[in-house]
Fold this protein.
Amino acid sequence: MTNVEQKVNFKSLKASCKNCSLVELCLPRGLDSDDLHTLDDVIKQRKLLRKGELIFNQGEESGCIFAVRSGSVKTFTTAKNGEEQILGFHLPGELLGLDGIDNRIHSCSGVALDTATICELPVKDLNVLCVKMPGLQQQLLNLISNEITKDHTMLLLLARRNAEQKLATFLANLSARFKARGYSADEFDLTMSRYDIGNYLGLADETVSRLISKFRENNIIQAERKRITILDHNALNEVAEGELSLN
Amino acid sequence: MTNVEQKVNFKSLKASCKNCSLVELCLPRGLDSDDLHTLDDVIKQRKLLRKGELIFNQGEESGCIFAVRSGSVKTFTTAKNGEEQILGFHLPGELLGLDGIDNRIHSCSGVALDTATICELPVKDLNVLCVKMPGLQQQLLNLISNEITKDHTMLLLLARRNAEQKLATFLANLSARFKARGYSADEFDLTMSRYDIGNYLGLADETVSRLISKFRENNIIQAERKRITILDHNALNEVAEGELSLN
DNA sequence: CGGCTGCTTGAAATGAGTCAACATAGGTGG
DNA sequence: CCACCTATGTTGACTCATTTCAAGCAGCCG
């Protein structure tokens, strides 16, 4: 199943880790070099997915968490009546499937938004490793804890903010995440549709469309279909905070 | 700090655990008896809180998670501009503060809604125990995983449901939780104000008031201020699911 | 007993949704 | 390679659920 016996002997720590995207997440709070290699060995080969392909399905027991290497991914729950609620969009270097970390059942599904590569990380192996590496244990808890905090921020956004603030927050957040991952904070492509954005933010897709136009008319962004250029981060943040209302 | 040396030698497992509310949560998926006692020893003495008293504060590092023994509690985040978003209400036997499980900083605050007793559980001690008790490790992850799932359900509720469905879901959920804890599913007191309910559900408090009246007029509930009696669980669930729309 | 806070109800205002028509891009097959 | 077709996005007009504003009421605490 895993290839723990496989030896790794490169000079550079990063270069020696096949699946850096996930391992990098653990670096900031210091696992030592040996630990990192052990962890890296547990991470399954990347998998290539086409747009729309399922990574894991709500209700199934994958026993894995996942890391995005390239491309992007959305997660969503499906209600009894069949309607979907998008829970998050995941960029390269980010994790998903943490809701299945107890090794039981995923409470949401993950789907590729475009061509994407993802790494699989079997929770079982992680648990075994945790005994040997107390640092990893802590890292894992940190990650989940952050997940909860993110959800709480989202609850606030959905419950208390108007459409303008929601979309501005969404764009500002995307920008910050691209920046954190080494991409441009000013110019990026939306891999998700207007419908997806609306679903995620609790808005009709027409509303999203209208707001994008409004932001453009106010010279806050430039928007050509999927391509977004942020012209005025300051104004965008002010709209997000409700300090600035447009038109 | 903790009283690990303290010996416990009662016959009944439950009777021998001073802080059953938390320990019970771990029972369903089987820690053995010795483990339970060890766990119980780590749980700090109950604390008595008056209405409005703070249990833990957003931004502070308590290093603890908490279990409600009696009374009820709300958790909420405070945004930059000072406005609050209630994240959840917690009944006896339920946990809170899991967002601070990484032993760092709480991303929300907890406050007693009425006179309440709560137990404190230092995460540090838990981590130590986890090494000795692999089962506990798993239990903890399960709990957090469930927390995430609950948040996801809430995201769906806030983003996709109308006011009627939100309130019906809220009441049905409360009822189920009371039942699960051995209280009546039909009759209970709301310890939170209309304002709190509205804040939690992303509604104006006037809307909550109006809906309660509407539910009463439709003979779904009886409502005398804080006292709620559910007359028709079936109808309530149908409203929650959007299968039934009132008036 | 009075004042305060929380609750209820009404009337008016409005933000976002719905419905509908049209535009554009990208993909497919002839 | 072009023409068509379907997806997705845009924009307008109208509707309506929920909010906001406002007034009155009821329970509760000091």
